[in-house]
Specification:
The chain is an alpha/beta fold. The chain has 2 domains: 8-203, 2-enoyl-CoA Hydratase, Chain A, domain 1, CATH 3.90.226.10; 207-252. It has helices at residues 32-46, 70-73, 78-97, 114-121, 148-156, 158-167, 173-179, 191-203, 207-219, 227-238, 242-252, and strands at residues 8-13, 16-21, 53-58, 63-65, 103-107, 110-112, 124-128, 132-134, 171-172, 184-186. Strands 1-2-3-5-7-10 form a 6-stranded mixed beta sheet. It has a 4-stranded mixed beta sheet with strand order 4-6-8-9. The radius of gyration is 19 Å and the shape is globular. The chain starts with 7 loop residues before the first strand and ends in a 10-residue tail after the last helix.
Length: 262
C-alpha cells in the first residue's frame, strides 16, 4: 500500500493498519480534507488483503480528535450545513460503521464533538486514562451532526445520551468504560499496545466470519432489517465457505486453523 496524506499518517504492521489524524496544532480537529483523506485511506485498505484490522488514533498525547474544525463551517447556510452532515455520514462515519474489517478507536486524549462521533462509529473503543469525551455542540447552538445523537444512545442508553448531549458535559475514561462507551481503559503508554493485542486476536480468526459478524451485528440496529433473520441467512451461508471447512477440520484434528486471507 502506498498511502501519503497531508493530515493522516498510515502505517501497516503485522496485518494492522494504524491511521493517525495528524493535526496536533489544531488538536487533530476534523476538517473536510481530513475526512476525505480518512475515507481514501480506508477505501484503499478495504481491498488490501494484508490489512486485517484498522486502528484510528490522534497525534500527540492531548487529543484523539477534539471536534470538527469550527472555523471551516462558521458561515454555512442551512443547505451547506445539511450537506456537510450528509457527506460526513456517507464518506466517514457510516462508512466506518459498515466497514468490512474491524476498526478500533485508540482514544488518546480529548474526543469531543466530531471526534467522539468518529470513535463511536468504530466497532470498538479503547481509551487512555487521561481521555475526556463529550458532545459540546449545544454550546455552539448546534446538535451533533455526524451520528452522535443515534450512536451515543445505542452505546450508553437513552437517559445518559440525553444528559451528555443537552448538558454538553464531558465524561472521563473511567465513567465512559462503566457506561459502555469504551471497552477498555489503559495508560497512555499502553494504549496502542492494548489495541494491537485485540487486533492480533482478531487477525487469528476467520476473516470471512469476522466480516459477516460485523454486518449481522449492524443489522440489529437497522430499522429496515430484522437482525435475527439476517443472522439466520448469514449463518447458513457460512457453511459454504472455505473458512468453515478449515475451522472445523482444525478443531477435529486438534490443530491451529489456517484461515484464508480475504
Amino acid at each position: 500500500m502506498t498511502m501519503t496524506y497531508e493530515n493522516v499518517l498510515a502505517e501497516i504492521e503485522n496485518g494492522v493498519l494504524t491511521m493517525t489524524v495528524n493535526r496536533p496544532d489544531k488538536l487533530n480537529a476534523l476538517n473536510v480534507k481530513t475526512i476525505e483523506e480518512l475515507h481514501e485511506a480506508l477505501l484503499e485498505a478495504e481491498n488490501e488483503k494484508e490489512v486485517r484490522v484498522v486502528i484510528i488514533t490522534g497525534a500527540g498525547t492531548k487529543a484523539f480528535v477534539a471536534g470538527a474544525d469550527i472555523a471551516e463551517f462558521s458561515g454555512f447556510s442551512i443547505e451547506q450545513g445539511r450537506q456537510m452532515s450528509a457527506t460526513g455520514h456517507f464518506k466517514l462515519f457510516n462508512f466506518i460503521e459498515n466497514y468490512s474489517k474491524p476498526v478500533i478507536a485508540a482514544i488518546n486524549g480529548f474526543a469531543l464533538g466530531g471526534g467522539l462521533e468518529l470513535a463511536m462509529a468504530c466497532h470498538m473503543r479503547v481509551a487512555s486514562d487521561n481521555a475526556k469525551m463529550g458532545l459540546p455542540e449545544v454550546s455552539l447552538g448546534l446538535i451533533p451532526g455526524y451520528g452522535g445523537t443515534q450512536r451515543l444512545a445505542h452505546l450508553v442508553g437513552k437517559g445518559k445520551a440525553f444528559e451528555m448531549v443537552v448538558t454538553a458535559d464531558m465524561v472521563n475514561a473511567q465513567d465512559a468504560c462503566q457506561w459502555g462507551l469504551v471497552n477498555h481503559v489503559t495508560t497512555q503508554e499502553e494504549l496502542l499496545n492494548k489495541c494491537k493485542e485485540i487486533a492480533t486476536k482478531i487477525s487469528a480468526k476467520s476473516g470471512m466470519a469476522v466480516k459477516t459478524a460485523i454486518r449481522v451485528i449492524n443489522a440489529g440496529y437497522n430499522n429496515h432489517l430484522n437482525g435475527y433473520e439476517v443472522e439466520i441467512e448469514e449463518f447458513g451461508k457460512m457453511f459454504g465457505t472455505v473458512d468453515f471447512k478449515e475451522g472445523v477440520s482444525a478443531f477435529l484434528e486438534k490443530r491451529k486453523a489456517n484461515f484464508s486471507k480475504n
